[in-house]
Amino acid sequence: MMLRFQHSEYLWALALLLVLQLAFISISWWKRSSIRKLGDPVLVEKLFTGYSRRRFAFRFLLIFLAFFFGVLGLANIQKGSRMEKITRKGVDVVIALDVSKSMLAGDVKPDRLTRAKQLISKLVDKLDNDRVGLVVFAGNAYLQMPLTIDYSAAKMYLSTVSPDMIPTQGTAIGQAIQVSDDAFNKKERKHKSLIIISDGEDHDEAAISKANAAFDAGVVINTIGIGSPAGSPLPDPETGSYKKDRDGNTVISKLNEEELKRIAAAGKGIYEHLDNNTEEVVNSLVHKIDSMEQKEFGENIFTDYNSYFQYFLVISLILLVAEFFIPEIKRSTRANVVTATEKP
User: Fold this and answer.
1) Are residues 106 and 255 in the same domain?
2) CA 211 from chain center: how many Å?
3) Which segments within 123-250 are labelled E, that is strand?
4) Residue 12 sits in which domain range?
5) pTM of the predicted structure, to 2 decimals
6) Where do transmembrane segments lie in this chain (predicted)?
7) Which end of the chain is more exposed for a tag (fewer CB within 10 A), N or C?
């Protein structure tokens, strides 16, 4: 069973649920604070005839759930309904993305990692029949997504990438090359392209030897350097300022172009510097990939999907209607008050 979100970008709206929860807490605190100012809370609440805290909380819960199901409806959960074997002609492309904290430097706006992800997204849009895989690395390297022609899945995996996914810091390019090489078909000695995107900082000595070994196995290695050779200070989320070393000096992260150029030379690929010229770099990579000898391969993929957004939107609508018709004041109490006022 293959499930996916057609519009996974809408799932970011779920972060607003935290805003709703904070709003509920703030309103509840304000109400309690106002009651305390009037006098004893127990006695004051009795003056609010028929008012129910539980009803207020229940109405909020309905709004909370309605928003949740509404977002799921907009993202549109889909289930694969028909699978076909598609024969394509292309190249296997593995992208190794540096997610170390140095990639948060702001010498490339908005930061190095965000710009790198934008580059990958644009590259995927221009790939046609090529399979694409994703490796992430910092102090260690992991295969985030195996080779696939499902480009929407590739973008979904890409959207989850962050420096927090690898706690060990560093720039283990050598290990990233090894993990990427393992992701390719070992029986083939061509049709394989590796794209490394990194600032090259804190590289390991094994990178060149791993690049030579990968090229001997048929992998062409292209490198993308991101950042400024002059360097940029690193933001520190804990202090809201820039990161300091043990001596109190501001840590400066610099692009190591020479190392990335050496890796590209060992892998008989190209080196490109990414700053604000994203489109030019993408075109260079596409041209390099298209110039490679291509292969035919078949893959079973879902070609038709059933959408289920309508069920989630109906649930959301029902919850909103229910919230609208549930009063905070008990009806029976209100009726008693009306009857009492009508008596002579």
Assistant:
1) yes
2) 29
3) 131-137, 141-148, 192-198, 219-226, 232-233, 235-236, 241-242
4) 3-83+302-325
5) 0.66
6) 12-30, 56-75, 308-326
7) C
